[in-house]
Specification:
By secondary structure, the chain is of the alpha/beta class. It has two domains: 6-58 and 158-323, Rossmann fold; 60-156, Rossmann fold, CATH 3.40.50.1100. Helix content is 41%, strand content 15%. The strands form two sheets. It has a six-stranded mixed beta sheet, with helices on both faces. Strands 5-4-3-6 form a four-stranded parallel beta sheet.
């Protein structure tokens, strides 16, 4: 069996220029993992679309293969992005694959170390901005308007084209769309692309539950958040670039966008890990939202439904969330009696 990246598999369905030259790390084809215990508790058929198993550990690779492939095709030599972490690692990896220079702007002190390490490992030039993600994105937009540097954030339309492929994959596995799709919402590119993908594929439309962190919930509050704060660093964004499209997706799907607390997000992260799926905090927002809504009389009706929750990034992206709260392990002599005294018979 030969493996294919998303442009090889679905390129005929994507609106990419003729000059596009495919740059791939064999992204996509991520699993839909059944979650029987939690599904039973919620009364639904529950699956995790685990995007953390993409090459750089997040869903960003789907859009980045398209954005970098288009940039290479038109002769770009340098790409740039603003990032809270996952975009940085993905842009750096695909730029490295293509032999391009990559520049990454990050908000000072606001990026998980696992993500920053990825961008550095792939050879990106990382610059910290004294401000928020939104400030960094404004700088990126300005410089790409004045220079030949290619912008690869999700406001790049080709990013959305690549990310649509996740919706195609879900429909291919189930031979149709699920009843509900739940996912985190940060800069809102992913919710926008899923909805576009389901509409284009014409194999059914799910209702969509978009979930923001309470400290970074401009779409729920109805106004920008100047200083967003949440443990879920990947969605710590106060001015989503595709906020209007996200609201349209929720409305058109007869779904909703809600906010959950950091405590609910971290609880959902532990619940997922208890069934063997370790995700970064932001990735657990979708599950946190489903749990919060499924238990409400006025929430979403999940019972008896097929529900897919998108987990956008691997737990290794932000391991300090777990390790910082972990007590030092017990130390024993290398002797059977000491071991049995600790673990019991």
């Amino acid at each position: 069996m030969s493996y294919q990246g998303v442009l090889h598999r679905y390129g005929n369905l994507l609106d990419l220029p003729a000059h596009t030259q495919t740059v791939s790390l064999l992204e996509g084809n991520t699993p839909l993992i059944p979650m029987p215990r939690l599904g039973k508790e919620l009364g639904c058929e529950l699956f995790i679309k685990f995007e953390g198993l993409n090459p750089t550990g997040s869903f960003k690779d789907r859009g980045m293969t398209a954005a970098i492939s288009e940039a290479v095709g038109r002769g770009a030599e340098t790409v740039i992005c603003a990032s809270t972490g996952n975009t940085a690692a993905s842009a750096a990896a695909y730029a490295a694959r293509a032999g391009l220079r990559a520049i990454v702007l990050i908000p000072e002190g606001k990026v998980a170390v696992g993500k920053l390490a990825g961008a550095i490992a792939y050879g990106a030039e990382v610059i910290q901005v004294q401000g928020s993600f939104d400030d960094a994105l404004s700088l990126v937009v300005e410089i790409t308007q004045k220079t030949p540097i290619a912008l690869v954030n999700s406001i790049n339309p080709f990013r959305i084209e690549g990310q649509k492929t996740a919706a195609f994959e879900i429909c291919d596995v189930f031979d149709g769309a699920p009843d509900w799709l739940c996912l985190p919402v940060g800069n809102a590119g992913n919710i926008t692309s899923y909805w576009a993908g389901f509409k284009q594929y014409q194999k059914g439309l799910p209702q969509i539950l978009g979930v923001q962190a309470a400290g970074a919930a401009p779409l729920v509050l109805g106004h920008p958040v100047e200083k967003p704060e949440t443990v879920a660093t990947a969605i710590r964004i106060g001015r989503p670039a595709r906020g209007e499209q996200a609201l349209e997706a929720a409305q058109q799907s007869n779904g909703k966008i809600i906010a959950v607390s950091d405590e609910e997000i971290l609880s959902a992260q532990r619940i997922l890990a208890a069934e063997g799926v370790w995700v970064e905090p932001a990735s657990a927002a979708g599950i946190a939202g489903l749990i919060a809504e499924a238990g409400k009389g006025a929430g979403i009706e999940a019972k008896g439904k097929r529900v897919v929750v998108v987990c956008t990034g691997h737990g290794m992206k932000d391991p300090s969330i777990v390790t910082d709260s972990f007590a030092s392990p017990k130390v024993i002599p290398a002797a059977y009696d000491d071991l049995i005294s600790v673990i019991g018979k």
